Amino acid sequence: MRNDELKGRPKIKIGFVGGGPNSFIGYSHRLAARFDNRFEFVAGVFSRDINKSRKFGTSLGLDTQRCYDDYFLMAKQESKRTDGIEALGIMTPSGDHYKIAKAFIQNKVHIISDKPLTATVDDAIKLEKIVKKHKIVFALTHNYSAYPMLREAKSIIEKGKIGKVMLINVEYPQGYTVGIKKKEEASILKWRLDKNMCGPSMILSEIGTHAYHLLRYVTNLEVKEVAAEVTSLSSELTVDDNAFLLLRMNNNSRGSIWISSAATGGENGLKIRVYGNKGSVEWYQDDPNHLKFTELGEPTKIITRASKTVSNLSLQSSRVAAGHPEGFFEAFANIYTEFADSIQKRKKNKKFNYVHPTIKDGVKGIKFIFAAKKSSDQNSKWIKL
Ligand SMILES: NC(=O)c1ccc[n+]([C@@H]2O[C@H](COP(=O)([O-])OP(=O)(O)OC[C@H]3O[C@@H](n4cnc5c(N)ncnc54)[C@H](O)[C@@H]3O)[C@@H](O)[C@H]2O)c1
């Protein structure tokens, strides 16, 4: 199980761009970086508003010299320091991820960025090229894939315990756009109303990429073709808020994704179900420490987090004994800790496999968003990926 021992590993100096006052996901990133003691948070720019950014950085306990006016200055100044940052977390609107990452990658700074990778396929491909060129580690915070019991589902499938995967369903109902009024949407959705920042579809960028990544991660399968209907169900909303997607997978199994912010009362009801010819697994974010596992002809078993028979992957993603609940923050922290592991292995020139989502997952994610939107724009025609 994970803990905060350094075991001789030096702490990695990290800075952040984005995640300022009242941002949605900034606190989760900063907390995740602190969780297992692997990073030292030393620099940042948290808002486009210089005063807001400085005030916020200081309130987080940063040295005022290292609360920068903008990310260009931060990249330049940090690269000149002998104790400059080695890693950067990005949690700004998605349309800026490429430009920000590029400014730091040129100085060999490793990147952990929020999803979707970018707002265009072009930016995603350019980003992948510079990541490869500069041999940096790039992690993407598809945080749901780091829940221990979700990882147990992956291990069960890899061991062949449910047989050949035949059906996959991922759903993610939220309800925050129900009843939204035109006059208030800008204050609620902010940059999400701007396609240059959010990409071609709000709902696909927001939670569609998470659902798509989860489905690939748990099953080790790829989507071959998608047919989608992406719509706006909330009457005064400018952007889309619901999508149904049908999927043809590379092993000929069939999948479906339903994502929505128009599901009244929906909170963060992420659920994945995978059915094979010998069994099935089912995981639900509302009950993240349990996994349902059914073998053909047998009653359903509930496997608990950190219990005796779970895989190493699942156990190593846990921190506390079975029965004590772990949740969203711990899963988020797993991605940061695995990012730290990757950086330290990369420094030693060791060969290793990434445990966390990477730039490749990011590029696939943005291509998927565009394919699904294209399908929807063509009356749900099947589109190849
Ligand atoms: N992994 C998840 O579960 C999850 C959840 C929500 C959002 N996200 C993603 O995280 C990113 C941010 O989303 P959010 O909901 O936190 O947005 P937000 O609007 O709540 O916060 C964005 C923050 O970035 C700051 N910012 C914007 N441009 C900046 C710049 N150039 N320099 C410095 N700071 C800048 C803003 O001041 C703000 O504080 C997006 O890519 C989004 O898709 C991921």
UniProtKB/TrEMBL annotation:
Domain Gfo/Idh/MocA-like oxidoreductase N-terminal: 12-140
Span of domain GFO/IDH/MocA-like oxidoreductase: 151-282
SUPFAM superfamilies: Glyceraldehyde-3-phosphate dehydrogenase-like, C-terminal domain (SSF55347), NAD(P)-binding Rossmann-fold domains (SSF51735)
One family name in Pfam for this protein: GFO_IDH_MocA
InterPro entries: Gfo/Idh/MocA-like_OxRdtase_N, Gfo/Idh/MocA_oxidoreduct, GFO_IDH_MocA-like_dom, NAD(P)-bd_dom_sf
A GO term for molecular function: nucleotide binding
Gene3D superfamilies tied to this protein: Dihydrodipicolinate Reductase, domain 2 (3.30.360.10), NAD(P)-binding Rossmann-like Domain (3.40.50.720)
Designated name of the protein: Gfo/Idh/MocA-like oxidoreductase N-terminal domain-containing protein
Species of the source: marine metagenome
